[in-house]
């Protein structure tokens, strides 16, 4: 059964090369690192509406998963925040908003290994960045209105 699992080394090499190039060519890229015990990397980007966006990329046996912490659990207007983000899910390509640990909101996605190439890595990172920049402020204004007014 284990014989049908793909060799992950070429994917690791591709991700390593692609991330190294991001630090050189992407003016928003601030840092890249890897969890030494896992096939997991992060790319930290400078934001505009949000100071930083960190995208985690995890290489699995059959899929590449990617995610970013979007915002903490809202203090107020929970229903409005979740409705806003669920309606945005309908427009997103290859990603979705989800609730994670401590009810924080994440933006997550995955693709089969057969789809992983430099173009798809570009698309994933570009889309993640664009979605955070586009939806962060409106969601924050809904979920933390009292704090932001004061």
General description of the model:
The chain is an alpha+beta fold and 150 residues long. Helices cover 40% and strands 29% of the residues. The chain has helices at 9-25, 78-89, 118-143, 145-149; strands at residues 29-35, 40-46, 52-59, 63-71, 96-99, 105-112. Strands 1-2-3-4-6-5 form a 6-stranded antiparallel sheet. Strand 5 (96-99) and strand 6 (105-112) form a beta hairpin. Helix 2 (78-89) runs antiparallel to helix 3. The radius of gyration is 17 Å and the shape is globular. The model has no long low-confidence stretch (mean pLDDT 94).
For the largest beta-sheet, the strand count, sense and barrel status come to: 6 strands, antiparallel
Mean pLDDT: 94
Query: What overall geometry do the principal axes of the alpha carbons give?
Result: globular
H/E element order: HEEEEHEEHH
Q: DSSP helix count? A: 4
Ends distance? 59 Å
The count of DSSP E runs of length 2 or more, i.e. the number of strands, is: 6
List the helices and strands and how they pair.
Blueprint: H1 9-25, E1 29-35, E2 40-46, E3 52-59, E4 63-71, H2 78-89, E5 96-99, E6 105-112, H3 118-143, H4 145-149
Antiparallel strand pairs: 1-2, 2-3, 3-4, 4-6, 5-6
Helix pairs in contact: 2-3
How would you describe this structure in keywords?
150 residues; alpha+beta; 6-stranded antiparallel sheet; 4 helices; 29% strand; globular
Short summary of the structure?
The protein has helices spanning 9-25, 78-89, 118-143, 145-149, and strands at 29-35, 40-46, 52-59, 63-71, 96-99, 105-112. With 150 residues, the protein is of the alpha+beta class. A hairpin with a 5-residue loop joins strand 2 (40-46) and strand 3 (52-59).
